[in-house]
Amino acid sequence: MDEQELRSIVYLEWRLGRAFLFCAREACKFLIRGTSQGVKCHLRQLHCRRTSDEIGRLIKALDDRGALEPDNGNISIIWLHNFKVSEPIEPFPFLHTIIDEHYGCVYCAHAVKPVNKMKDHYKQEHPGQEITLRYCKVQSLQVGRRFRYLQVKGTTPVVRATATSLLARHANDEQHVDNVVSAVSHNREPNNWLERMGFSVHLEGYDLGLVASLADPLNNSPELSSAVSHLRAVCLRAANRLAADAISNETLLKQLNRRNSSDTTLQTFNWRIQNQTMVKYINSWNHILSYTERIYSWSHPSEPPCQLTENQRVAFANVVSLDWEGASDEEKDAVVFDLIWHISNHRLRRSPFESVLVSACAVLAVDPRNHSWRTSFSYNSTHFSAIIKILLFVIYMRGATAVDDQDRDKSKPSWTNMETRIPRFVDDLDAITKSMDGVVYVRNADSHTTPVTWTTRAQLISKDARMGNARPPVVEWESDGHLRLIAGGGMTTSRRSLSKLMLTATLDAEESLCTLLFQLPGADAADPALDALVPDLSRIRDDRSNLTLGYSFLRHPANRSWASDASTYLTSKIDAHTDLHRHWFIGNAVNADAAKTYESQRKKFMSKLAVAIHLNAGQPSRRTEQQILRWQNSLHGGMRNIFVCNGRVGLRSIWYKRRWTAKNEVPIWRFLPPSLSRLVVLYLSVVLPFSKCLHRSFSNKGNPSCFLYANNVMHSDTKEKKLIDEDSLLSRPFSGLCRRTLDSKLTVAQYRHVAIAYARRFMHNQSIEVILGLDLADDDDGDQQPSTTERDRAEVTHAQAAHSAQIADMVYAVEFDSGEKFNKFLEASLYWHALFDLSSDRPGGDNPDVAPKVRLGIDERVSRLSLLPDLATEKTLRRILSRADDVRLRQRRTRLFDAVEKHRKVVYVIGNEASASVAFDPLSYLHVGGCTVIIQLTKISQERTRARLTAQGLSTLIWDSRSASTPAAVVLVTPDDTRKREWRGFLHRQRAHLCVDLVVLDEAHEALLARREWRSRFLDLAVEMDAICAQQVFVVGILPPSLQSEFFSRLNLRNKGETPYILRSQIVKDNIRYEYIDADPAVGIPPVVYDMTSRAARERRRAIVVSLSHDVCDAVCTTLDVPKYSQQMPPLEQERSFSQWRAERGVLSATVPLTDHIDYQDVSLIICLGAFDYLSLCQQFAWAGKDGQLAVVVLVANLSQLSGEVRAFATSRCNREAISLYLDGKPQTCGLHQNPCQGCSSIIG
User: Fold this and answer.
1) Any idea what the Cα angle at residue 528 is, between residues 522 and 529, rounded to 5°?
2) Does residue 891 carry a pLDDT above 70?
3) How far apart (Å, rounded) are the C-alpha atoms in residues 108 and 414?
4) CA 562 to CA 957: how far, in whole Å?
5) How many CB atoms within 10 Å of residue 18?
6) Which pLDDT does position 468 carry in this prediction?
7) Please, is 1232 exposed, middle or buried when counting C-beta atoms within 10 Å of its C-beta (0-12, 13-18, 19+)?
């Protein structure tokens, strides 16, 4: 074998004194283990398959060159990581060099992408060495799904001295954010709740200081701490498994939510728990288990408050005796299951405080700070929810593990160590039901209670106690229009004083930002150079529907140029000014003191910005809601909620009290005034990149944070993201601003009551003219007509204030992100800005207490508001879309919009005018912020659809169970994948972020051809589609009216008495000529067919000869000397033949099943050598003439072998009349404006 033939199969490169073999296929390039067995295994795979002769000659050629090693039995994945590379290597010329920053070891050529993986490398390969990293260029060596990164030469840790080069090194850091941990504290008034709970009686006579220390987790043993950590892992596994079962197993979820033996109608169990809440729940159990350990090892002379049962002692002994470092996950599961189960499964017949769990609840009612009893308001009622929720997770995992053991016929159970008689369960539901009966609830005939049933009652008692203590009113209106805050020492507020407060907050934030921008004291943010660099907000583009990881408005294609220049503004300013350079650099290093001071100033600006946003954004958000603002999409933080739209910064949240139990999520929008919006944009585009580079100049650790209020712009803790605490961020700066501006103390909670009162009085029944003081003199009847109704404005202001009862009345979350509701949120914010004179481009406005800079643009604001109702109409939206360059709304697509608006299920018969794969693309534009699920038959169709939709600016995802999937505007999935559990879990997570508002079944006509042995999934798709979304579109290429009833029956479209709406396009086109030739293809190809194909080949027109059998396909290929596309061909040969036809055009010989993969607009000739039936024949004909040019379709078959409708077509005087009657239901003969068929051409002339 010569070198050229060798390189066509494998690349052979020598490095480090050994041979490296890579597959030469462009789409593969996997590293092949350098043994004869490794070469054989790879080249026998489907996509890289070679003949036995080629493999044998290749192995001999490699052996002659000394490139093969003896087989040692190691699999390829182990071999990939075994060979050592001590220094960076020369790049392999045929592999792509990854430019993005990776982390490299300084002692060898090993490299990783996530920095946390380097710790294990140093531990194994360089023990005792300090972990030191460098940024490097790498190449990826891949074997199957495993990768190994090697550093290539050119890697250097040297950083030049200029500030601009400092930024360039870190400008494209990978975004990585972990979950947030935060808490909200409350101050409540005392009450007599303790007596009703019985806590004080139970612990009477005990030293409360000693009692409080019994539940302190700081005293836990290492074994118990490990058990608590594993309990959290069990709960997370349970939540993920429930996510996959949530759609298909509603009965199981209802059983988990059961609290009474007689319950009949139940809501489903809420398994969706925020990471923050999960941490609180596990912390509650951590206190309970700490108390259990104190009772287990009680050594005090006095009696303990309670005693452990024998089973509880054995379960706890198993926990402390387990080797937690060496134990398997199954062993850890068993001891944790037993411990939680036996603590909760305790029959109580005398006092509930016999239970260690109930006794622990009493201990947690003691405040360890002052050794006094808590009140019903200061007691953490989350403890009760945590007890029930975590137990249900354990019951679910315990039962599911038991059923899995049964299915695997395991001799020793992995779900318990203490059961002597192992029960048998029918399924997961049976196991959970039997476990909950007598533990979570007891029957009426039983005389005992349990710790869980006591906890359920304790929840109700605590709720009643909190609700029963009525508070006095917080605010009241006085006769002069001022608002008096009763609970705030009698202070009064007015629109004038609040406007002063809001504008002062914006001025404070602007002054602080000027410091970060290196501007002189007393200057404002209107630096001419910066204004020229960062455009006006009305010119900044953003895509609210873009869910791509790492996306923000700064990455929008229209913003990249100015955003790139803005990110280097500060570093260029340092290089241009000698004093600044001297301040920031000491020799060739960044001045650490200057960086520390700058970071302190950044945090001060964050606090002032948070206060300004809280005051100016409309109805105030809750503190935790504002704390988690995100400016960029991230892996763990989720979708960003800071956008730029309508010339303002918009903040989006779904934070309201019933958000986890309500079926529909309700996005809530708040918009900032122009001046404050610009401060946010300047910070994100100018200050944040500079701060990130300062952090990286001193430490290689950490990942950029996507959170606006991150404690550091880079976070190094892999387990939690650090946010500025609520008191430092908002509470203390807010109180300080109020004392300085209003000469009175006003807390965040008190201001919330004030803001809601102003919204109810001035915004719920007032027009914009009234708010602005522009009373219309020409109004005949004197009535003020608001631009929106009172109810509309009340809805959005209630939503911004997070009033759950009002939010529950709103419908369909998609309305809030696009269309009418979105505009109403914008209008409500504009009303708020106008009410307090906040709408000028610079702060100050008309308020006499603030130095005026630019007056409010009243006329412009009024005209903008007057346009909002028009912008919210469907007609206007369509007009906008029809004028867009990337959306061409044809008449048939407009008809499709109307049908989808009026009907839940639409069958769209599209014909062959264009590919059915993009018939639904304008629908995705109308559902901005939502999600469209498209079911397609093949991966080839999905790739084609993704390319077209991506070109139109729609984020598109091809779902794959083997890889992580992120939300997108369009999700493509195959019928087989819709059955998988991973798909159901993904769909449920998708619903948690977006509203799935449309499901499309592409090529739905295949249901007419589906059989149980071929494409059987089509016959079961109705249930899967109903589970995805109620709004459904069935895209059909052809649907004869005679088969319409069968089509409905096969897809179960007439269930519940609902008949789908049929939207038809004409299928038989004027540019197609229909012909029939009486000949037997098995005997030979008729001369006329040879002439037609030869002419098409000479004229370089596309033509396809479709055969029913592989033998006829081979005969056509040999006779006509054309490429072949057959199902029996290996994939590589198929690709070569198809590539030849794609490049050279001409004629292609194909079999029927593979013509589904051929989608070209310019096919001018289709010759079908026989037909299975009339429907499949029409499908083959449909591939011709899609570009509107003249085309010919021919049926070649023996007339004696034809029957039914195919024979009627063949014997008809006008073939067009026969096929139009079948496909369109209306016979249509050839005319002067049509491409006449064979029988009509002589008559028409």
Assistant:
1) 115
2) no
3) 43
4) 29
5) 11
6) 55
7) exposed
pTM over 0.85: no
- 308 vs 671: CA distance, rounded Å: 57
Which residue is associated with the tokens 């476990």? 435
Query: Which neighbouring-strand residues pair with 12?
Result: 21
Task: Assign 53 a pLDDT band (cuts: 50, 70, 90).
Answer: confident
The 10s digit of each residue's pLDDT in 256-286 is 888 776 665 567 788 778 777 888 899 999 9
- 626, 730 contact by CB (below 8 A): yes
**In terms of Cα–Cα distance, which of 801, 810, 1115, 1046 is closest to 907?**
1046
**Residue 233 Cα distances to 218, 228, 339, 544, 1006, angstroms:** 21, 9, 15, 34, 45
Pairing of strands 1072-1078, 1102-1107: unpaired
| Residue 540 phi, psi (nearest 5) | -85, 130
Residue 1165 and residue 1184 in contact, taking contact as beta carbons nearer than 8 Å: yes
* Higher-scoring residue by pLDDT: 929, 499: 499
State the DSSP code for 854: S
DSSP track, 169-218:
HHTTPPP----B-----------SHHHHHTHHHHTTTS-HHHHHHTT-GG
And the tokens for 656? 């309201």
Main-chain phi, psi angles of 1102, to 5 degrees: -75, 135
Q: How large is the C-alpha radius of gyration of the chain?
A: 36
Locus of tokens 């005992």: 448
Give Cβ neighbours of residue 1190 (< 8 Å, ≥ 6 apart): 1071, 1073, 1164, 1235
Q: Which of 944, 988, 948, 949 is nearest to 965 (CA)?
A: 988
Rounded to 5 degrees, φ, ψ at 251 are -60, -40
Nearest in space to 699 (alpha carbons), one of 2, 40, 133: 133
CA–CA gap between residue 565 and residue 562 (Å, rounded): 5
Two tokens, residue 951:
């070109």
How many whole angstroms separate alpha carbon 1084 and alpha carbon 1046? Answer: 37
- As beta bridge partners, residue 579 has none
Which one-letter DSSP state was computed for residue 684?
I
Residue 1221 to residues 511, 913, 1217, Cα–Cα distance (Å)? 77, 19, 6
Residue 264 has phi, psi (to 5 degrees) of: -115, -60
Those residues whose C-beta lies under 8 Å from the C-beta of residue 631, and which sit 6 or more positions away, are 552, 640, 642, 684, 706, 707, 708
DSSP state string for 499-549: HHHHHHHHHHHHHHHHHHTTPPTT--S--HHHHHHSPPGGG----TT---T
Per-residue tokens: 1182: 């449909």
Q: How far apart are the first and last CA of the chain?
A: 63
Is-contact 911 1037, C-beta < 8 A? yes
Q: Which of 659, 666, 680, 661 is nearest to 613 (CA)?
A: 680
CA distance 930 to 856: 36
